[in-house]
């Protein structure tokens, strides 16, 4: 067995460690195979050697997610598996103290060859869903799951979980809890492989005989890989149920749920039953109670509707579809669920390249985790994305799959149509999406690169201020600002969706879009004066590719949350493929993006309407000074109108002229990209309109202004002087 020890060690290392050089270890295994008389070992080595070059990230993901509750279940078919165990112990514990007291002994699993009844549940193990699943499989003469005896006390079973239908589970049957009168914690069957299958699934999903309960659809999937579907009893009419049953394409069962008060006898609450026959003429359904192999219960369709909460279907996908594909991925709730919008979720694309309408099915499978056996309450689902993907997520109609970790989605795609899907989960988990189609021309993939579809920036309020900064104030420019540019090979007009979202619905948020050179913020594109709680969405904003835009995010009042997100997205259509990247980054244009920055407050003295501020510039030969000037009143007022002019100090030559008085826009009055050469000192003169400014209209503190100056070189702003010009 030493050669198998070496094989297990090597295969785990190769599949789980991407960077290790495996050439020498493979050579050693091949040498062992040459000397070996074990045909199974020789075959396993040859298969491993052939598959090394085919190992990709998805295959490695399967191996790295093989540990469940501290036990390792590799994706290896039993025909290629080592006869050695992968884990130290491979049997279920009794669980509760009551079971330990009633079943004190540990002996080998009994082989009941002389038992004449059908498969029957042990009364002390609440696994009716597992037993009902096995009843359904045997009724269709299906020898699933694959099982092989490897020693007198050990079996290997291939179960379907964590993205693979070949999870290798070894079961030790020598430690079965047994009562003093010989009763065991095991189902009854004349075929010991039924007992082994039950033990294998209990070991993986529970680890003990004290189960938390499950359902037929989920357990049938684990045992066979048949696609689980959970629906309401009235989702399908009687004729459809009969059609499903006679087609032999699916296995069927029902669950009573917690409706104990109105159940007809002998039905009981919180119990699953197999559907073993449906009679079209009498409209009767025959149920099999897993607790009693002699109990077949006939009910009418109307009784079926009024006594059961769930209909369980498991579809044999190999009979329905010709092609299948599986994608595996990790869902990080911190990354994907902080802002519950579609664009921030894992995205998937389906394209129908055939000439006719096609049906596709997807199964979202939540992985069993290497964590405590206490079930974590979780909701997970896949849903079709709308055209605008900056909207909040929307859960599909819940038929039971979103809470059980198994959601079956059925879609129709027209010829050459495509769909965008997204995945959501309330907890961290690994997932597999199993994809099925009849036609080969259906394309399914995870969008790992969404640079041409969506861009986002997470931010906190950038400018510490106790002032109101909504767009109806002159402090609006102090809000977080961002540069947007959509890159494409050719210039074209496209439509963008934009959203600003907070982690708190107490924040009233708004987002505005401007051209990047609109420093005064006077010409918003599709202006919207509404502030919305938690999130605002601006749809179909027309922009030109390869042009720069400015986005301003604001709150109405002091922000409650310390974390916000700005998301921009194109529409999921053929045009997004022409976009190479959406560029979105935080910028600060208060000083016009210049490195040297100066800020001060100033005011007019009483009865004066003019102020002059000297600015000393660099005087190096051929030096060009570039300036950005922003003047903003401390408080907004419709009555305050000002104008700004710039002169050379020595010659009084006008460098920048503005003759008209202006009301102050949301970004203040801005003089941008002013270039001055060979001038040592300039004077910024600011005047207010005397004709409309008088004591009767004066409100608030309109005597005080703020000055922001940005420059490409170091400057000095001297103490300003008040010119005596009486009003």
Automatic annotation (TrEMBL):
Q: What highest taxon heads this organism's lineage?
A: Eukaryota
The record ties this protein, via SMART domains, to: CysPc (SM00230)
Q: Which UniProt keywords apply?
A: Hydrolase, Protease, Thiol protease
* SUPFAM superfamilies hit by this protein: Cysteine proteinases (SSF54001)
Provide the GO MF annotations for this entry. calcium-dependent cysteine-type endopeptidase activity
Q: Which residues form a coiled coil?
A: none
Gene Ontology biological process: proteolysis
> What family is this?
Belongs to the peptidase C2 family. PalB/RIM13 subfamily.
Q: What is this protein called?
A: Cysteine protease RIM13
Organism from which the protein derives: Saccharomyces kudriavzevii (strain ATCC MYA-4449 / AS 2.2408 / CBS 8840 / NBRC 1802 / NCYC 2889)
User: Quick one: which gene encodes this?
Assistant: YMR154C
